[in-house]
Amino acid sequence: MGRLFISTGLVLVLGWTAGAFLPRWLQFMFTMAMANGLVSLGIVLLMRGGVVAFGQGLMAALGGYAAALVFLHWGWQDALLLPLFGGLVACLLTAPFGPLLARYRGIFFSMLTLALSMVGYGILVKTDSVGGSDGFNMGRVTLLGQNLADQHVSMVLFSVTWMFAVVCSMLAKLYFSSTRGLVTQAIRDNELRVEYMGGSVANTMAINFSLAAFLGGMGGALAVMALGHIDPNFSYWTTSGEFVFVAILAGSQSVLAVMLSSLVLEMVRSFSSAYFPSTWQLALGLFLLLVIRFLPEGLGSLWTNRKTKP
């Protein structure tokens, strides 16, 4: 445990140090990659229980809208407070659906989460008070009550997002190794045996769904802070598909692989859209097919499988 906390501190310091030497466009790309990686980490959490959520975009949208609305109407502008509030709102608003979704597996769970996301998309598009289909802009955040100069905004957002990504990844790693995390894996393998042994499959899956919503809302709030704009497309099915892409690319064995996969997606999106604007999705699809063919357990299997071999 102590070694994990020391490693987390070192990673934080190394990331902040390296980020200070990056140009602004790279800081922005890394910020978006880590923010979206948090959303995909929620999908990986559910994947360890044998289900895939195609509605994680709704969680990101709820967190993003919550952060942007309290910024505009309540004057909450702190970069450390807004992501936590966004995650909490996403968790509370979707928690009532957890017990229902926990009863389903396979394609049924995926389609129900997708339907829930598209219902949210429809509501956001038709609600003029939150900007309708165009959404609305969000101003510049502060840090611990201090206004940020133009030359410092990018680095501060990078640093805050890096901190949340590293800390949440550490906590996710601890959760995966905890009793409930191991029960989640057992549910994926044989949920009937888990019930016979006294474990509650429904409660475990419902809790995992709420945790995934919290991570999604937090990632959505961080992304909105970096972009300065929120619109219903955060909840659209194609956005959820990108988060699923990252989760499948990473696999369910390593939290580090989730962040690396999110960075790969952002790099391919940035460079391919610049040089191949009409075919960058094709490049993503081909890359995913190659990973599924040669690394069916995801990028994380490159180092986790070696650790388990005698």
Q: Give the tally of β-strands.
A: 2
- SS summary, helix count: 13
Report the sheet with the most strands, covering strand number, pairing sense and barrel closure: 2 strands, antiparallel
Helicity range of the residues? over 70%
Strand order of the largest sheet: 1-2
Q: Distance between termini?
A: 24 Å
Overall residue-averaged pLDDT value: 85
State the shape. Answer: globular
Indicate how many domains the architecture comprises: 1
- Taken in chain order, the helices and strands follow as HHHHHHEHHHEHHHH
Range of strand content = under 5%
Backbone structural class: mainly alpha
What are the segments in which pLDDT stays under 50 over at least 5 consecutive residues?
Answer: none
Question: What do these coordinates show?
Answer:
This protein is mainly α and 310 residues long. The protein has one domain (2-236). It contains 13 helices and two strands; from the N terminus they run ααααααβαααβαααα. A two-stranded antiparallel sheet has the order 1-2. Helix 3 crosses helix 4 and helix 3 runs parallel beside helix 6 (106-126). The longest helix is centred in the middle third of the chain and has 28 residues, at 150-177. The model has no long low-confidence stretch (mean pLDDT 85).
Give a summary of the structure in a few sentences.
By secondary structure, this protein is mostly helical.
Overview features:
310 residues; mainly alpha; two-stranded antiparallel sheet; 13 helices; 1% strand; globular
